[in-house]
Amino acid sequence: MNTELLLQNLRVVPDFPIKGIQFYDVTTLFKNPACVKELGDALYELYKDKGITKVVGIESRGFILGSILAERLNAGIILARKPGKLPAEVYEESYGKEYGKDVIQIHKDAITEDDVVLIHDDLIATGGSLKAAYDLVQKFSPRKTYINVLMELVDLKGRSMFDPSIEITSLLSLHGE
């Protein structure tokens, strides 16, 4: 993977959405076709032999590469969304994040016990939204669940929210946040 290309195209926005937060804006990666290809190829190589049947993309940046990866893996794409966005019955989880609280939902018919699920999001910081998505997926008792993020803000220790037996991969690990 061309880490240098990705880091050169990643925008850091200070004090967004509130003062004191360094926001890592992946939209600058998504607008560059070379970065999109690099990310898609790297994700595919990580998961091509894992038997993934469903990819859960977390609102909203997780939808982008989650969809690309689902297509390449011949898997379904499941949307984990904020309240009021999904039209049928949902499971939901609330969680805290660096600058507030939120809720995430998944349709109750989205996943089966036979599925092998990959949860994908743009980053793991403190781990709140990713852990909420993981907890939602576990309500379906899938055969296996993997977690992937584009970036991990290592110093915020988001992995500590998870049991060490859960496989979490990140394409970029950033320190000193």
Report what the structure shows.
The strands form three sheets. A five-stranded parallel sheet has the order 4-3-7-8-9, sandwiched between helices. Strands 1-2 form a two-stranded antiparallel ribbon. A two-stranded antiparallel ribbon has the order 5-6. Helix 3 packs across helix 4. It is built from five helices and nine strands. It has 177 residues and is of the alpha/beta class.
Task: Describe what is shown at a glance.
With 177 residues, the chain is an alpha/beta fold. Helix content is 27%, strand content 34%.
Main β-sheet, spatial strand arrangement = 4-3-7-8-9
How many strand elements? 9
Average pLDDT, to the nearest integer?
Answer: 95
Estimate the strand proportion.
25-35%
* Approximate shape: globular
Characterize the quaternary organization of these chains. single chain
Q: Nearest-angstrom radius of gyration?
A: 15 Å
